[in-house]
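INTERNAL AUDIT FORM
Audit reference: QA-55
Scope: verify that the stored structure record matches its stored sequence.
Auditor: D.O.
Record contents follow.
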Amino acid sequence: MTNEKSTGYRWVVVTLLFFATTINYIDRQIIGLLKDYLAKDFAWTETDYSTIVVWFNVAYAMGNVLFGILVDRVGSKIGYATSIVFWSIAAAAHSLVKSTGGFVGARIGLGLGEGGNFPSAIRSVTEWFPKKQRAFATGIFNSGTNIAAVISPGVIYYIYHSHGWRTAFFLTGIIGFVWLVFWWVLYEVPARQKRINKAEFEYIHSGDAEEERESGPGKLTWGRLLGVRQTWAFVIGKFFTDPVWWFYLFWIPSYFNTTYKIDLKSSWVYVSTIYFIATFGSVLGGYLSGWFIKSGWPVYKARKTAMFLYALCVLPVFFIQNTSNAWSAVALVSLAAAAHQAWSANIFTTASDMFPKKAISSVIGLGNMAGAMGNILFPLLIGAILDHFKALGKITAGYNIIFVICSCAYVVAWLLMHLLSPKMKRVVA
């Protein structure tokens, strides 16, 4: 029997992925935190801001596909390094823009580069963890999205009021280059990593023979990937649920400002609380399906049961329209955000459940592209709804409609995924 503890170097890998994902979300979230200030400087309407978000998502969709292909060809080490260099330069470039068009250009560059984060990270988890631990490992590194949201409001508020928004964009942009040094020195695939012992290597690869046997020896072409229901199950799940998370990321600070008259100086406590609680959803959500598997459940049953429970936990955000104070709203959004992160840890892992390692980055890229396409359409709807109700002097009513849509998205996604791939059978090349 292999020793699960052994050297534990795989957790060093997860730590690297965690910090990269944290940086990734700090860089993309800053514009949402500074939205109301930038809107005054550049005279943005809600539709203008939505357009900037849409262009980011168009680029992010393209970036996921391009980096999915790249990472499957050159590996996660080079692929991840290329991605973070690209997005860090683009993030810092926000500090130089002088117009709304300049923001659009900078967001396009950021979106293209950030498209490499999840194809690289999920590929790394698949290389370093056996199937029963992948959802838990994914949940840990994906919690970086929450940590970014916890620390960003206070830090960005301080930088903005001390040095201005240009400095805030520049400083957050260059952090990625610090991470790059650690990544290049510490990361390598297990077969070439000298810092692990035989016991850990064997544990990491436990189950590989069965996975390869189920997957077949051939290559999975793009035509093959697009022709199987498992791909579309993953794609549709991402399409319906990713936009909800991005709505929280880009509009929640403004929601507190417009609904409860709480600006960034005061709202950071509320926003940070939401994402602090969501961190527990990310980690515990990944653990639950792994616990089901260790208890003897089939993998597909473990993943789908966990995801259905998380979908149900999002439903109560429907009642945000009945809240009368900010902390009640925080409680409902916190539950929904935690459930999303738990869902996310598992839906990413369904890709490695259904597809072999050699195709995983391409599949993740397709799914994230679909999520980004949802993020293109949903912000347009958000902007139209908010501008309509803002003109009527009832912008909170607009937010209430958007929260109703968010509350139903996960149940709809789960049902469609189940119809497309009831038992999540392994795709054979």
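Auditor finding: record pair retrieved intact. The CA atoms of residues 167 and 342 lie 34 Å apart.
Action required: none
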